[in-house]
């Protein structure tokens, strides 16, 4: 009976040693997993910070680009207004030019009529008739406006 108890005690001690070895191995694995978990938690926090910094940078760039777009839209609007003003000025000048061309043509007709009267009235003066009569030619330009 003692031998069996010794044998059982030896088996129990061996089982206890095996259990202690297994518990030690489990502790080592647990420590390794805890260290790995802390490392991953640190990496996660670092990535979260980087993500937040990127989002802030992106938001700042987006705001800057929105400001630039707004400024360009204002510049475009101002340029369109300026172009419209220049077009109105050009049309006004073109109208003045056309009025002046009409007035010049009228004066030219008057001068030609006076010249004809002068030539008809100086029939008794051959020396004046021998002078070449001035001729005026007017070539009006036509401008087209695409408005």
TrEMBL record:
Gene3D superfamilies: 1.20.5.170, Single helix bin
A GO cellular component annotation in the UniProt record: cytoplasm
Keyword set includes Nuclease: no
Region of interest (Disordered), residue spans: 125-147
Keyword Secreted: no
Alphabetical keyword list: Coiled coil, Intermediate filament
Molecular function, one GO term: structural constituent of postsynaptic intermediate filament cytoskeleton
Pfam families documented for this protein: Filament (PF00038)
SUPFAM superfamilies named among the record's database cross-references: Intermediate filament protein, coiled coil region
Residues in coiled coil: 37-96
Protein name per Swiss-Prot or TrEMBL: AINX protein
Gene name of this polypeptide: Ina_1
